Amino acid sequence: MISKTSYEAKGRNMGHVDVPQFFGLLVVMLGTAKALGALAQRIGQPAVLGELVAGVVLGRSVLGLVEPQTDVLHLFAELGVIILLFEIGLETHLRQLLQVGGAATLVALVGVALPFAFGYAVTRMLGFETLVAVVAGATLTATSVGITARVLADLTHLQEPESHIILGAAVLDDVLGLIILAVVTGLTAGQPLTVLGVVITAAIAFGFLGGTLLVGRLVVPPFVRAVSRMHLPGTPTMLAVMVAFGLAWLASAVGSAMIIGAFAAGLLLHDTPQAQEIERGVAQLGHFFVPLFFVTVGAAVDVGVLHPLEPGNRPTLLMGGLLILVAVLGKWLAGYAPVWFKGNKNIIGVGMIPRGEVGLIFAQTGLASGVFTPPLFSAVTMMVLVTTFLAPPLLKYLLPSGPQTPPPPPPEGIEALVMKP
Description:
Blueprint: H1 4-12, H2 19-42, H3 47-58, H4 71-90, H5 94-99, H6 101-125, H7 130-139, H8 145-154, H9 161-188, H10 195-227, H11 235-253, H12 258-269, H13 275-299, H14 314-334, H15 345-351, H16 356-368, H17 374-398, H18 413-419
Helix pairs in contact: 2-3, 2-13, 3-13, 4-8, 4-12, 4-13, 6-7, 6-9, 6-14, 7-9, 7-16, 8-9, 8-17, 9-10, 9-15, 10-11, 10-12, 11-12, 11-13, 14-15, 14-17, 15-17, 16-17
C-alpha cells in the first residue's frame, strides 16, 4: 500500500511541477482559454483561435507561465488531442468518408508533394545545402488535423463533403507525415535513404489504419453492446474512452500516430446504439482537456521572431515570409487537385493550411539534429505560427453560418437539485 507521503512525493515529481502550483496553473490556462475563446466568438471567430492566443499570451512569448515541454503539460496536451480526434471520429460517418476517399487521397498526396517541392526550392534558393532544404521542405508537408477539425466542429460543418475530404486528407497526411518524419530523422542521424525502409514504414502506417477499421467493425460494436448491459452509470463512455486510448496505444506500438488510432476508434463506435450517450460523455471530458492542447500549442511559438525592428530578425523575416507564402500556396492548390469535385475547393485548401503542433515537431527535429540554424528554425516557427492562426478566420469567412446550436439537455444529478425551485 502506498502511503500518503510517498504518493505526494511522486505527484510532486510529475513533470517537475509542484502539485498545488500545477493546479493553479490549470486554473489560469483554462480560465484564459475560455475567456479568450468567448471573446473570439464574440467578434465572429472560432473559439479555437482565442485558445491559441491564450497559449501565446501565457507562453514564452509574453508571460512565460506555460512551458509546453514540461512533462505533465505535454501529457495533458496529448490527452486533449486524443479526445478531440476521438470526438471527431464519433461525429464522422465512415461511409461518407469512404465516398470521398479518392478526392481525399489526391488532396493528401498533392498537399504533401507541392509544399515539399516549394519549400525545398525556396531553401535552396536562399543558399542552404541539400539536407537542410530537404528537412525544411518536409516541415512544410505537415497538416494539423486537430485545429481544422475543431474549427469545423465549432462552426457545425462536420457533415459537408468538403469537411469529409479535409478530414480524410488530413488523416492520410498524418500517415504520410509519419513516413516523412521517419525518413528525415534517419537522414539527420546520418542514415542512408533506402526504398525498403520507406516501404516498410508506409506499410505499417497504412496497414494499421486499414486493419483497425476492418477488424474493429467486427469486434468493437458487439463488445460495446455486451458490456453496456451492466447498466452502471457512465459505463458506455468509459468503455469507449478505453477503446480510444487502447487503439491510440496500439497505433504508437506499431509505429503509427496515436491520433490515427483515436480517430479510428470514433469511426468504429459511431454506429453503435450507445453513440449519442458516448458523445455526450466524451464531450464533457473534451471541455477540460481539449483547450489545454490548444493553449500548449500556442505556448510553443515565439512571436519575438516577428519583431521587424530587430536587425537580426530581418533575414529571418525574409525566410519566414517566403516559407509562409509557399506553405499556404502548396496546401491551397492541393484543394483544387480533385478536379471532378463540384464543391468549394477553397474550403478544402484552406482547411489543409495549419501546421500547428505537427509542424513544430518537424522543426524541433531539425533543430535538435543541428540541421537547422537558430535563424532558420525561427523562420520555420514563424511559418508554423502564421499558418496555424490563418486557417480559423479564413474557414469562418468561407463557410456559411451553420444551424443554431441545439438546446442543452435537461439538467441531471446535482445540477437538477441545485436548479429545482
